[in-house]
């Protein structure tokens, strides 16, 4: 089978460079390569690309492009019934083809796989086991593929993550808030997601690492171009225990547009976004707006009204209905996570416990029995790890086992 | 005519000690004395006292007490139709009589008038020209009388006032916020109302005085007992250019209950209440709750989340829907005062102008003509002063005169 001009051997070589094909069949493998190709054809959030890939599959959509199919014929395949809407769609596709054609070079795809292989990046697509499903809430604006450097565990923990963002121009107050918030949420078993920028973002990542927590950075360029340069070592550390993720392929440069689109990924991948310190026009307000548009909770930490560095947080509270949050407990409340808060909650349970124990306790209910598999799913841990921790908790008297499963003591 | 055991000559003597009878007839004079008597019978906010005085008039209600009327017969006079409700009302009155009887001493009334005369206090009742009508929104909990030391002008300006309150335990940040807020609002022609406590309240009064603005203090005890003692000189200064007001007669001590009830007067007398800095359990939150219960706008100024002194403000924003306000402009927006904000507004108009000029400019409309009387009513100034200021503004080109009145240039 040939796709995008590639021999099967070359497909195998490319995929093995980025962690293999996850056991996919020939058509799954073609889809993987085609999604990788699409991830460099359109800019992030390209609605028309999202539509075609969703409706036709990435490989089929790419073949139509390569075969020189007309916009009208592509539109007819996307939606054979909607005659009226099809004219508008054909017009969108016509404009999109003009954007995509200059990038339709198979050599670039090969090079991006090679660069990914060199830096140890993997390719994820929506069928991948580790794909962060929450980003699919972006609909036609969802990423087509994700390039990832990092641990499986960190990707699993995205299901229980918080976006902590803020301005580059941080004050010592803002940095203190970032350290306390990130360390406190990490200690409660939340993965800390941010954008690796100087200032607040960097401090959020660092505090999570310092407390042994999980942290994930979404980048605006390729994961082989760690940006900003001054955070190269920090990002290498994040990639070792957490994850560094981009929707653009390796080699891609960060641009202003890509930073704004990267913000939508932080908002979508997490359960809530909290802006820790931000000036009136900080880019972190953009992340908050994406989160609000997705219906995700948004929190903002207030600061002195005499500090311009807090004006953006106050603006979010005043104009955008962001919740005023002043402590880690109030950030956890953002999710309305009944299980996390039940029974006096996080604080009491967190005393002297490892973060794995806290995560298993959080995943237990005081009322209903849950199976180890269910607890594994909720905690974002493996079933084997969960069983080990449950054994420890049972000895402590913190968890109770019955025939039908486990519950909080 | 004899009321409460007083000869007419004694009534005349008492009333002349507190600024005369405002030209009232005999029944109006009796009502004045009776309201003064009621102001020491019940504690502030006594619902049953408010009901009887509203339904029967203060003099009639007092005569029934003095004549030893039964609770049932008083209830029947209050509401002859509502047979069912009357039993509950009679029971209320029965309990109230037990509270009031120990205080039913005509000597105390005489002494309170004498004390008021000595400190230059006047007696206001709802019929008085200078009565702050906004407090009537308290319904049966409205004050029955007010004892006032201060300028007519200050009482008139209560119609355009803001309550600025906060904790005694203020930080330098909170004091700075109080100074900026009070001075800024005073410069925009707002009277600054507060409770004369140490900390935020005192700073709000001082900043208003320092900028030549009007400030009004509501006290929990009598206006002859300036409390707290350390603010004696401050309160004397407020009484000279602004006003010091209490609903309890001279000689009354401030008590915890009276402080809480005093807070409802600050909330009711003003167009909005702003909490500038307050800890988690600050009494100023009580003022904010009263304002919210009255449907008055409530603002709270955020501060560092690391400062316990701002925890009450954040609590108001989080739990009580208080508006997060970070500047004088945002405080003015609380009122939704279209005229104040119209045409680029307060800031531009305030440059290099006296506070009287600013108040007249605020009272002018750019669209519609207004008469000097109307401008006097809106600005809380006398018509004579308004005409003087309008002359100045016309020379500056800031105000335009036409046959039908004046408008903003």
UniProtKB/TrEMBL annotation, chains A, B:
Q: Which GO biological process categories is it annotated with? A: DNA-mediated transformation
Domain Smf/DprA SLOG: residue ranges: 123-335
Kindly give the InterPro entries that the UniProt entry links to this protein. DprA, DprA_WH, DrpA_SLOG, WH-like_DNA-bd_sf
**In what residue span(s) does the DprA winged helix domain sit?**
346-403
Family per similarity comment: Belongs to the DprA/Smf family.
Family annotation (NCBIfam families):
dprA
**Matching PANTHER family:** PROTEIN SMF
* Protein's recorded name: DNA-protecting protein DprA
Species source reads Orlajensenia flava
């Amino acid at each position: 089978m040939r796709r995008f001009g590639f021999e099967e051997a070359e497909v195998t070589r490319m995929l093995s460079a980025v962690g293999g094909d996850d056991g996919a069949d020939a058509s799954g493998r073609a889809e993987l390569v085609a999604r990788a190709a699409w991830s460099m054809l359109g800019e992030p959030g390209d609605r028309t690309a999202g539509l075609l890939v969703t409706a036709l599959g990435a490989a089929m959509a790419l073949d139509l492009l390569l075969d020189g199919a007309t916009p009208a014929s592509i539109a007819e395949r996307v939606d054979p019934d909607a005659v009226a809407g099809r004219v508008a769609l054909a017009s969108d596709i016509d404009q999109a083809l003009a954007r995509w054609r200059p990038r339709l070079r198979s050599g670039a795809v090969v090079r991006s796989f090679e660069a990914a292989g060199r830096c140890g990046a993997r390719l994820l697509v929506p069928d991948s086991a580790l794909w962060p499903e929450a980003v699919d809430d972006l609909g036609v604006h969802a990423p087509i593929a994700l390039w990832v450097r990092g641990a499986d565990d960190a990707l699993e923990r995205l299901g229980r993550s918080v976006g902590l963002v803020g301005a580059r121009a941080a004050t010592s107050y803002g940095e203190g808030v970032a350290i306390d918030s990130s360390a406190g949420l990490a200690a409660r078993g939340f993965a800390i997601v941010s954008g690796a920028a100087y200032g607040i973002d960097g401090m959020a990542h660092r505090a999570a690492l310092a407390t042994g927590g999980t942290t994930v950075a979404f980048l605006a360029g390729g994961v082989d171009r760690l940006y900003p340069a001054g955070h190269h070592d920090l990002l290498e550390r994040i990639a070792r225990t957490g994850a560094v993720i981009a929707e653009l392929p390796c080699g891609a440069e960060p641009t202003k547009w890509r930073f704004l689109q990267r913000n939508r990924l932080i908002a979508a991948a997490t359960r809530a976004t909290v802006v820790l310190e931000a000036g009136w026009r900080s880019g972190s307000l953009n992340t908050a707006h994406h989160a609000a548009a997705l219906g995700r909770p948004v929190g903002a930490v207030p600061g002195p009204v005499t500090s311009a560095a807090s004006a953006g947080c106050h603006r979010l509270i005043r104009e955008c209905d962001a919740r005023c949050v002043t402590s880690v407990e109030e950030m956890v409340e953002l999710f309305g996570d009944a299980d996390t808060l039940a029974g006096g909650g996080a604080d009491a349970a967190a005393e002297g416990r490892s973060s794995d124990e806290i995560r298993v306790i959080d995943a237990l209910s005081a009322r209903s029995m849950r199976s180890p598999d269910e607890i594994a799913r909720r905690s974002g841990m493996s079933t084997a790890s969960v069983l080990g921790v449950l054994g420890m908790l049972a000895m402590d008297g913190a968890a109770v086992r019955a025939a039908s499963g486990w519950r909080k003591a």
